Amino acid sequence: MIVRVSKECSELGIFIAHTEVVNLTNGSLHFEEEMQKLETSFDLESLSVDPVVRAYREFYWRLGIDPTKTRPSGEALRRRVARGSKLPRINDIVDAGNIVSVKTLVPIGLYDLSKLVGSPTLVLSKGGERFNPIGSKSETLESGIPILQDERGLVIHVYPHRDALESSVTNSTTSVLVIGAGVPRIERKLVINAVEMVCDLLKRIGGVKTHEIEVS
């Protein structure tokens, strides 16, 4: 699968690392040991000065999002464990992405390949697109928002922090598109490594990469 990033998104400094993983057997609690270790590994003080956190926060401000109210996903998960709370246990595939986001602070997107039509493209919204976020009500998007759409126009992601219900991973998911979200001042190597870490975890539940990680 080729995942494209439009010129206008590239001009914002957006890039993504991606691959597909197939042959998965999804379940729950397969990564419990890793999650328990992470829940005792971090503190809040280091987050405020972390250059990765700062880079994603600056990008949020550029999009008009207040990152003190809507945290970048990696930071939000890291804060959660630093405050003594447990990570959410969703299913093995989603848990793998969350583990890597906590470790690297890179937002990880996981999308059920069977629910996508064609190859997705990251574009700026024209305004009027419908988006059905996981855990929230359906909404109509304004213009100028980075979104990931499949070839039928379905919005599967609002970049880099909200995923759609229609392409979400469930217990019956057997193949996924894995995306690491890059923004200005984030090294490409970090995002590539984050996607590789997800793939390594997914190998433990049968996952096989269909191709090497690509950067768009």
TrEMBL record:
Domain of life, per lineage: Archaea
Pfam families named in the record: B3_4
Annotated Gene3D superfamilies: Phenylalanyl-trna Synthetase, Chain B, domain 3
GO MF terms, alphabetically ordered: phenylalanine-tRNA ligase activity; RNA binding
SUPFAM superfamilies per UniProt: PheT/TilS domain
Signal peptide: none
Chain ranges of the B3/B4 tRNA-binding domain: 54-207
PANTHER family: CYTOPLASMIC PROTEIN, PTHR39209
Protein name per its UniProtKB record: B3/B4 tRNA-binding domain-containing protein
Taxonomic source organism: Candidatus Marsarchaeota G1 archaeon BE_D
Lineage of the organism: Archaea, Candidatus Marsarchaeota, Candidatus Marsarchaeota group 1
